[in-house]
Amino acid sequence: MPRGSKAKYTAEQKRKAQHIEERYAHKGVPKDEAEARAWATVNKQSGGGEKAGGSGREKTADAKTRDRRESARRAAASREGLPRDSRASRNTQTVESLRKEARAKDIPGRSTMRKQELIEALRKAG
Fold first, then answer.
1. What is the DSSP string of 42-96?
2. How far apart (Å, rounded) are the C-alpha atoms in residues 17 and 40?
3. Are 42 and 17 contacting, i.e. CB atoms less than 8 angstroms apart?
4. Cα(63)–Cα(73) distance, rounded to whole angstroms?
5. The overall pTM is greater than 0.85
6. Which pLDDT score is estimated for 56?
7. DSSP string covering 9-46, please?
């Protein structure tokens, strides 16, 4: 039998578990096993009982406005084809793409460099 209280589950989750349990019982699975499988399936599909929703902290109006402006600024820069900050984008690139960029700039020793070394070499090469 499944452990724990089912009080935090919604009516829909309880109905779904009951239906799944009945289908397993119809297939000949023992009642305890059918119930355990049913609740495991409900938990897998919905993540468990009702969640308390959110962190409890709301953003201030100023923070929301600032975030919207920043998002709009990034979107406008993207539309204009401007790259993001090169340091940030290089940290997210793969070593292979960094090596390809180093090859294009003809940086010596690139094939034996580690990621951070490639980033530094590319930064120096400008």
1. HHHHH-SS----S-S-PPPHHHHHHHHHHHHHHHHHHHTT----HHHHHHHS-HH
2. 9
3. yes
4. 15
5. no
6. 52
7. S-HHHHHHHHHHHHHHHHTT--HHHHHHHHHHHHHHHH
